[in-house]
Every structure is written in C-alpha cells, then in structure tokens.
Amino acid sequence: AIAVAVIALTTLPLLVASTVPLLALAVFVSGVAISPTFITAFGLIERRVPEAMLTEGVTWVMTGIGIGMALGSFAAGAVVDAFGAQSGFLVSVAAGVIALTTVLIGQRSLAGPHCDLTGCEASAVPAQ
After folding, report:
1. How far apart (Å, rounded) are the C-alpha atoms in residues 89 and 52?
2. Is the pLDDT of residue 118 over 80?
3. At a CB cut-off of 8 Å and minimum separation 6, what does 18 contact?
4. DSSP for 71-86?
5. What pTM does this model have?
6. What is the DSSP letter of 127?
7. pLDDT at residue 115, as a whole number
8. Separation CA 37–CA 6 (nearest Å)
9. CA distance linking residue 50 with residue 120, whole number of Å
C-alpha cells in the first residue's frame, strides 16, 4: 500500500509541470517509484501463490500490467485529443487513485493466512 501510495503521489507533479525540464524531472521521479512497487508485488506473488503455480501467477500479473498500460495509453490519447495535452496527465492521476483504492480494499485479504495446494496455515489462536 505504501509503494502504491508513493506512485499515486508522484503523478501529481505532472499536473503542474509547465516546462519540458520540469516535466522530465516529474516523469523521472514517478518512474523511480515504479521499481519498488514491482519488487513488492512480485514478493507478494511469491508469498501468496502456491509454488507449483508461481509461473502462472507471475504471468497473470505481467499480463495485467501490459493490459493496464495499453488501456492507460488509449485513455490518455483520447483525453489529449478531446481536452488537450496537459489534461492527459489526469489519466495518470486517476490511475494512481484507482490503484491505491484497489490495494487498500484488498489489503486485508492479501494479509490473510498463507495458502498452498495442500491448504491454508492455521492462524495462531491464544490459549485461554
């Protein structure tokens, strides 16, 4: 959630970048935030997906990333055509907000017990 929040926050400077050097700096800062998020996501996949299905889990995530980038490019292009170049950055901000909301909603289920093909680990219950 923290990594995705950082990505969402780094989209905001894109809205106020008024020159090419400022835009380059804003894109650089936003790009730097992507790697920690990917590392965290792949660590999560490794912990939550059964070992026998790890390749499939990574493939699904990479496919989702590709689809998201394609849809984002499509949406940004449509917004730029309709409202101008500066408005295209609103798509990045909206995507950041949607991603953060999705992570926050799903965070509890992702933090649940570890499961694999043989079942889920029992949660520790304190003795009474």
Report:
1. 40
2. no
3. none
4. HHHHHHHHHHHHH-TG
5. 0.73
6. -
7. 56
8. 9
9. 10
Cα angle at 66 between 6 and 39, to 5 degrees? 40
Q: Which helix (H) or strand (E) holds 116?
A: strand 115-116
Task: For tokens 């929040």, name the residue.
Answer: 5
Strands (E), the chain: 115-116, 119-120
Residues 75-116: tens digit of each pLDDT: 999 999 999 988 999 999 999 999 999 999 988 877 765 555
| Main-chain dihedrals φ then ψ at residue 116, nearest 5 degrees | -140, -165
The encoded tokens of residue 92 equal: 């990045």
Residue 55 pLDDT grade (very low, low, confident, very high; cuts 50, 70, 90):
very high
Token pair for residue 102? 């999705």
